[in-house]
Amino acid sequence: MIFSRCHIRVFKFALNKPSTNSLVFVAKRFSTFTPIVNSLRTYLKRPLDVGKVLKSLRLSGLALSISAVPFARVGECKNISRRVDHLIHGDNREAHLSLRDLASLIAPHAFWLVVAVIAAFMTALLNIQIPLYLGELIDAMAEIVKEHSQVGRASLAPISPVVVKLVASYAAQAGLTFLYITFLSILGERMAGDLRLRLFHRLLHLDMSFFDAEKTTELSSRLNVDVQEFKSSFKITISQGLRTLTQVVGCMWSLCRISPRMTLFTMAIIPMVITIGAFCGLLLRSLSRRAQCQSTIASTVSDEALSNIRTVRAFAMEQQELRLFSREVEKATVLHEALGAGVGLFQGGTNLLLNGIVVSVLYGGSGLIAAGELSAGDLMSFLVTAQTIQKSLAQLSITFGTALKGYTAGARVIQFANIAPSESYKGGIKIPYHSLWGEICFEGVHFTYPSRPEHTVLNGLNLRIPAGQVVALCGPSGEGKSTMVSLLERFYEPNAGRITLDGKDLTSLDVQWLRGQTIGLISQEPVLFATSIAENIRYGAPGASDEEVERAAKLANADSFIQSFPNGYNTIVGERGAQLSGGQRQRIAIARALVKDPPILILDEATSALDTESERLVKSALDTAMKGRTVLVIAHRLSTIQSANKICVIRGGKVVEEGTHEELMKKKTAYATLIASTNS
Ligand SMILES: Nc1ncnc2c1ncn2[C@@H]1O[C@H](COP(=O)(O)OP(=O)(O)OP(=O)(O)O)[C@@H](O)[C@H]1O
Fold it and tell me: Topology versus the membrane, per the UniProt entry (predicted)?
């Protein structure tokens, strides 16, 4: 509850503080919430007022709360955006973490697991043995007391070996505890690193259609939060689970040696605990998954609002965003509260059963002592062993809750890490540089986006872009011009027909070579990385020298403005290049495309977002850049279109007219109308 309030308060602060520093502050606050929550826990220890007590009573109806959650309608307020409603319905996919997945994660670090398991196992064995030594010590002490009462003095010799054994056991226990915690930490960190890399690698290679359907915040949450949760839960589950399980089994054996009758009675209760545990597990696992999904939805709202803070401000949507965030955080809180209460009930119930066992054992044990079947030392061993079992089982139930969270988090990560990218993206041929002409042909291409299969975008499109020529695509908005670029870049594959480069089907070519060395793409709103100008340009060709970077910047008409900055090429451009003007960003993007010297250049409305002066500068950069290359231009402005060697008008998913500007203007058909309407 407090956690959710903090979230909302911090979010409110960010929405109302104008500086980007406040956003950085918020990002830090969100990432450091765990220690904050820990410190806030102390807050809970304060005396509660009546209102708070009443609120807390929500937890009391645990069974009701768990069963009511699926039907819960939280925060139904008027005027709240429905921006995230599709996530609520769409994010209920069940994720599983199989033993095979787990084994594949552990296998490379099996050594650390084995040594950690051995150390934890030995610690548990010592924990079983120690009560027996304590029993021996009590018996030896009883002997001393007896001897003292008989002869007036006694020697400490009988207890010395037992004390030595005890001290050695405690020392070994401390050493082994250190070892297994260290080894498990190594294992956990390495596994988490691998898992994060595996997921990131997979995400980087997945088909573009995957990103059409998924939210980046969701992916980032799986990559960071879930991996972290999985790691810590895994460590706790292995260390405590193994130790406590061994202790339970070992102590049972010890009890068996001390009193078989009592042990039999204790064992009879264990299956009951397991059955209840399995039932609760089923219920809580689904609840845990829903709670984690809901938390992700809440983060999606805050992330989107903070990363689009200018739009939020421009539409005065601060309060709307806050209400939306509050609603989603409230929902997450209810689910997490129910989950916490569920785990609490499970632990409470288990404790009740376990304490029942202890009382019964003690009661039965008293009978045996009365009958003279147990010594004082045996009684001591019996008590400590029974208590160890009780503590171990109580610990097991806590570990169960942790394992549950870890399972859900791990399953969410593995769900995406296991998605296979299309086979066609691997391997393929590379056309040698000297024999690459750069002629592109679209032959009867049909295409629909995987996320919207009912909407045909390209419908048997034919187009030839001769090598070394500039071809301009124009047509009304939404007719598929940018889609053609996406197909050329092989972000998607045509449903029918083919696209060729120098007569070779694109699907037979190496994608890395095609995108990395052959095609240079300059889009309408280029995104820069928050690093220096030089590094942004070098992104086009990571091996480029400083001279090559400067040459590309000069070609792109960017060198003079870069040199005018105090730090020149080392100037940091800010998030997504926010510290530069649109025209400057665009010219750096052109330099980034040119630094790899691509034979084919694609300009996707590269100047349409610029003012006249910036457009003039960018256009003169582009005119130089286009020389000697095959160029595909998507443009609306007459000045860009009319200088092309060929103009194609796209309509209804096809090329409906093609020719030079003069030829098409003479015909006075679709092109002339389009030019008149877009450039009037
Ligand atoms: N990722 C996507 N998933 C589903 N549909 C898409 C996707 N991208 C574009 N579309 C749809 O495909 C159609 C063609 O879009 P495209 O961006 O290619 O048009 P365009 O001709 O470039 O338009 P504009 O000139 O406005 O940029 C549109 O109807 C659009 O809604």
Answer: Multi-pass membrane protein
Q: Whose alpha carbon is nearest atom 17 of ligand 1?
A: 482
Check whether residue 388 and residue 454 sit in a common domain. Answer: no
Q: Does residue 136 lie in a domain region?
A: yes
> Mean per-residue pLDDT for 590-609?
83
CA 656 from chain centre, in angstroms, equals 46
In short, whether 437's Cβ falls inside 6 Å of ligand 1 is no
Residue 406 C-alpha from the chain's centroid: 14
- Choose the residue to mutate in 208, 448, 452 for probing ligand 1, maximizing ligand atoms within 8 Å of C-beta: 452
Residue 40 has pLDDT above 60, yes or no: no
Which pair of structure tokens corresponds to residue 527?
């995104």
Alpha carbon of residue 443 to chain centroid: 40
Give the pLDDT confidence score for residue 160 in this predicted structure. 87
Judgement on whether residues 574 and 500 belong to the same structural domain of the protein: yes
Q: Is 660:468 a contact under the CB 8 Å cutoff?
A: no
Which residue range(s) make up the domain with 104? 95-258+373-416
Q: What ipTM was assigned to the predicted interfaces of this complex? A: 0.97
Q: What is the pLDDT of residue 444?
A: 92
Question: Is 486 among the domain residues?
Answer: yes
The whole-number pLDDT of residue 167 equals 92
pLDDT at 83 over 70: no
Question: Is residue 210 in contact with ligand 1, taking CB distance under 6 Å?
Answer: no
Q: Which of 416, 448, 467 is the last residue of a domain?
A: 416
CA–CA separation, 616 and 142 (whole Å): 101
What is the C-alpha to C-alpha distance for residues 605 and 489, in angstroms, rounded to an integer?
16
Contact between 357 and 269 under an 8 Å Cβ cutoff? The reply is yes
> Got the DSSP string for 597-662?
--SEEEEESTTTTS-HHHHHHHHHHHHHHHTTSEEEEE--SHHHHTTSSEEEEEETTEEEEEE-HH
Lowest mean pLDDT among 40-44, 167-171, 446-450: 40-44
Pick left, alpha or beta for residue 440 (phi over 0 → left; psi -120 to 50 → alpha; otherwise beta): beta
Whether residue 476 contacts residue 651, with contact meaning beta carbons closer than 8 Å, is answered with: yes
